Amino acid sequence: MNVGGFSESIWHFAGYLRLIEPAARPSDLFDGDPLPPPGDEIYGRLSETLPPAQFEETASQRVLFVEAPAASPALPGLKLASPDFKPISLNPSSFPALPRRDAPLQEPDIALEGGIQFRFLSQSRSISVDYQPGGTETLLQLRQINTMDDRDVILSDALPGVLPPEIETGAAVAEMLQQAQEATPDSLPFEAIGSTQALIAAITARDAAWAQSGQSPHADPDYTPPSGLIVDGVVVAAAPTGPTIEQIAPWREAASAPTQFVSQTVSEAASTLGIGAVAETGLNQQINQAVILDLNEAVGSMIVGGDAFFSRGIVQVNILTDSDHVDIAIEGAGSVGVFTTDNQLHNIAEFVTHDMTARYSGAAATPYWHVDTLAGNFYDVKTLVQFNGLEDGDRTVQASEGAYFEAKTGLNGQVNYAMVTSLDQYDIIIIAGDYHRADWIFQYNIMLDSDVAKLYAAGGTAEDDVAVTTGFNSLTNSASITTYDSAAFAALNAAQHDLLSALAQGATVLTPHADWGLNGNISGELKILYVSGDYYDVNVITQINLMVDADQAIQASAIGGELGVAAGGNSAANYAEIIDPGTLSTSRYIGGEAYDDAILVQTNLVTDDDTVTIHDTTTLVPEFVAFAEQTEMPTEDAPPLCKPIEATPQDILI
User: Fold this and answer.
1) CA distance 285 to 290
2) Residue 519 confidence (pLDDT) above 60
């Protein structure tokens, strides 16, 4: 790499996209009349602004060393493998002689970083153009689907006939799905996500309404495009963190807590397992992770004959229903901990834009153009859908009779991962119609975790614990859209209009013009895509986590020990990123109007109506009556039945 040349990140692209790579070369660029060497005064000024050129051990020869301006800013964030790219040494003798013209041609200016410009004058050159049908279109629809039905049932001989009926969840789930649909912008309907044709139709209609009204169909006139890292509608410096396993399952703090099912009678006080019953029916995890890296339009120059539409959008929705019912009957001085809250719902979004300010030229001095022509519309559409569906309504019945009984019916995991990378190798893209560019991310977490826990603890001591956690659920959406582009389109000039007309008519010989302002390279050839219709450049990621975890846990102990239920602690997370480089220079031109917009929708909906009852063992729910009759009950001298205590979670958190 030469000092002052392309940045390292631009160099990553250069190998793929055949952008200019600076190299020392003779001043004779083509076969024919040589270009006059620059004067001593000019060469002296040039040597002051550029580092010394490096040459191999060949005969000494004075050359003009011209380096393209550095691109600023650099391209952080793209993790592309460096191509095996070497500068090309142009051999003038390898090209056939081009036909000469009598009229001299004014070659394009070449700007240097030091502010010096050279204008090369030579005799007229011609550009040979060949055409062939081509253009690699992409209509990619990738779907990743995980579904799981894990409704476990555990029974206990000590509680014969005790098995609660399954909870009906269908109506609640249908309502939550309706809420997710209503949170999606009408400009891109929820139904359009599953069909490529419907998605294209929706974008076409949206852009047409955009051009007619002059403003984005979704945003109001006072809408401000988002910027920075936005968490739940607020710009922050860092993303939040979720709950720890010690919060979700407090008994895991003890080193003696077993890690697998144990059925062992405790005959000695020295047992390390203790006495009690523990059930972990929650702690399920769903993860979707997706990346689209779209390099198809990362070209040196682009011309759009019509309008250009660029819409970016992130739609993030978290919906949680966590209405728990906890009923605890306890005797003795043991501690009770009930945690039904501390659910965390977060939407994290970021739009990152890198403005490309590099100015390139040289297409007018590139003698061979290879043009792939495509009649009609061109489609580069990539849709990625990830879905996790989990039904985990467990029913567990446990009785502690001198053993440690640990049941793990939750802890299910679902993971989708996908990375889509697309790369074409055009130097210039020319679109006769409109350019439809869209990067959209849709993320939905829908969780129903309405649990029921009933615990009976008799004969306990001050060391005995009863712990129930039905909260600590975590729903997270995280998305980012990163673009690399010049800040704006420039209007087409007369020379560029003439060029479009010539290419549309299939001209095989072009007369170069300095006002084209298009990028060339020292290979002597340009690869160009010409589209006679509209161009659709669309990237869409849709991620859905749907979890139904309505657990029911019943535990009873007549000899003390530890009782614990962890029915919450579920997590659902979506991670999505779209990296979409566009034109890598300011060589971007348009014949119509340019429309650019970014939309962010972040929604958190929570239904959390908990009921917690803690009372004395003399007041029993029906499930425990048979079990209590087999144990030592309070004597007749015992105080009268205690009235159940209705308490809110805040009153009993410890």
Assistant:
1) 17
2) yes
Contacts of 358 (CB under 8 A, 6+ apart): 6, 10, 68, 69, 70, 71, 72, 584, 585, 586
Average pLDDT, the chain: 75
| CB-based contact 239:348 (threshold 8 Å) | yes
Using DSSP, state whether 593 is helix, strand or coil: coil
Domain parsing of the chain, residue ranges? 8-125, 138-154+161-606
Query: Position 262: which residue type?
Result: V
**How does residue 390 score in pLDDT terms, banded at 50, 70 and 90?**
very high
Cα 230 to Cα 227, 234, 349: the distances in Å are: 8, 5, 5
Contact by Cβ (8 Å): 405, 277: yes
Burial-class residue 370 by CB neighbours within 10 Å (0-12, 13-18, 19+).
Answer: middle
The Cα 130–Cα 506 span in angstroms is 9
Question: At residue 202, what are phi and psi to the nearest 5 degrees?
Answer: -65, -40
Pairing between strand 127-133 and 509-510?
antiparallel
Higher per-residue pLDDT: 265 or 177: 177
171's CB contacts (< 8 A; 6+ apart) are none
Neighbours of 376 (CB within 10 A): 10
User: Are the C-beta atoms of 568 and 322 separated by less than 8 Å?
Assistant: yes
Provide the token pair at 134: 């081509």
Q: Which two structure tokens, joined as six digits, stand for 513?
A: 């013009």
Q: Mean pLDDT over residues 121-148, rounded? A: 84
Q: How far apart are CA 625 and CA 194, in angstroms?
A: 53
How far the first Cα of the chain sits from its last, in Å, is 63
C-alpha span between 183 and 192 (Å, rounded): 15
Q: What is the pLDDT of residue 190?
A: 59
If you write DSSP's letter for every residue of 500-524 in order, what string do you get? HHHHHTT-SEE---GGG--B--TTS
pLDDT in tens, 144-170: 999 999 999 999 888 888 888 888 999
Amino acid at 569: G
Q: How many CA atoms lie within 13 A of 648 on its CB side?
A: 4
Q: How many CA atoms lie within 13 A of 254 on its CB side?
A: 12
Q: Where are the beta strands (DSSP E) in 103-181?
A: 104-111, 117-123, 127-133, 138-149, 153-154
Location of structure tokens 């719902």:
345
Q: Which residue would you say has higher pLDDT here, 201 or 637?
A: 201
Q: What is the DSSP letter of 250?
A: G
Q: How far is CA 206 from the centre of its chain?
A: 23
